[in-house]
Amino acid sequence: MRCIRSLATLAVSVALLGAVAARAGVGPSCVAPPAGLASWWPGQDSAEDVQGSNEGTLQNGATFAAAQVGNGFSFDGVDDFVSVGDDASLTPQVFTLSAWFRSAAAADPAAAFLVARSGSDGVSGYELGVFPPSGALRFTLNGGAGGADLTGATAVLDDAFHHVTASYDGATMRLFLDGVLDAELAVATAIAYPAGASFTIGRRERAAIPGFWTGVVDEVQLFAGHALCAAEAAAIAGAGSAGQCPGGVETFCLDPFLCYKAKPTKGGPGFAGGGAILEGPIESLEVTVKKPAALCLPADLDGAPAEDDVTHLEAYAIKPATAPMRLGNLAVTTAFGTLALDTVKVDRLLVPTAKSLSEPPVAPAAGPVDIFQCYTVKVTKGTAKFPKGVQAELADQFEAARTLDLKKPKRLCLPVGIDGSPVAQPAARLLCYPVKPAKGEPRHTRRTGVFLANASGAEQVDTLKEEQLCVPATGALSP
After folding, report:
1. What is the CATH number of domain 30-242?
2. pTM, whole model, 2 decimals?
């Protein structure tokens, strides 16, 4: 048996960037900063905010030292820190904190803070640091009141550099350590931000327990209005010393999808079909949208859960009015490896869709999951073939975890705008592999009358059998 191990959404980040770099014989490339970056203090021999206008000031002898990405802020654990002051941009309700750090402490400190904006009482805003007795990261909102207190599972006081991403999306707090989810907590709270409190790096304002950091803090970032997904967190960590840069490798947030062949439910709402103009990264195509062909569910891949269990994809058969471009020798990488592929024809459209087994749902609003246009593909002649025996463990809202056999990829799907609609994640790709249950595994239990709703209207479909697994992919495209 050949299975991948716990990559899932990380396939678009650490695994893919690492695979590409390894094949090229070079180190990782820098990655583009994710959306929502409000302030960025790289610590490159200054406390400048290179993204916003929240300039920092070194306090009490804080200085700089070699760090993960160039230099970073160096603190003695006695009284050094960086003061940024107060600004409305530093007080979001949905946000992410990101930083590299190294603790020089050999033993667990009473408390040590990487970043804080919590005021003189320490019971408002947010704090990110390390508390005893675990020596693990701790992320709090409003001082942890109302249960908003998240402690990681991994000790980090080891005198080594680590990357942390701490995010809050209004419903869930998450800690990612070195690009991997370390802890999460479901909690809904309104963050209180008293006026005049400073944003600090290397301590918090509460005088009783200031929690001065001993060691280095590097590449501090605040993302406002955006909770980074697992792929984005892993991409930053995976870039390592290459860091982040404008024009760097783009990262996207996208789950794997397990697609079931489907047909319209007898007596259900009919699908009228119609024409559409698709604007993609390769070309513009006028197509006729035909009947529904498959329903794709967000899938847990090898034990790693899907991040968005609400957004599904409905696949429609499409026919272009003119022959599409044919591209050859495209290097496409997924968690299952890299292949050279040739496009053949355009045959599918994947549309973000809401699903319900009991009643008609509300169609999803425009979000980060785009509409995808799919090209059938074949492996480029004379290049490495897709190996035999590849398997993956998958679970979704229809089926419990089971092992599926994968065959060589059949479709490469690219984000498109339809009739002038924008594309949210231009770098997103899906590569789809035909699948079937492995020997001894149960087959799909058919569902009838599944309610669907998307931009095309309301429908009902019956699922038939497993068809394909579509996973996040990376790859440059050029006609």
Report:
1. 2.60.120.200
2. 0.81
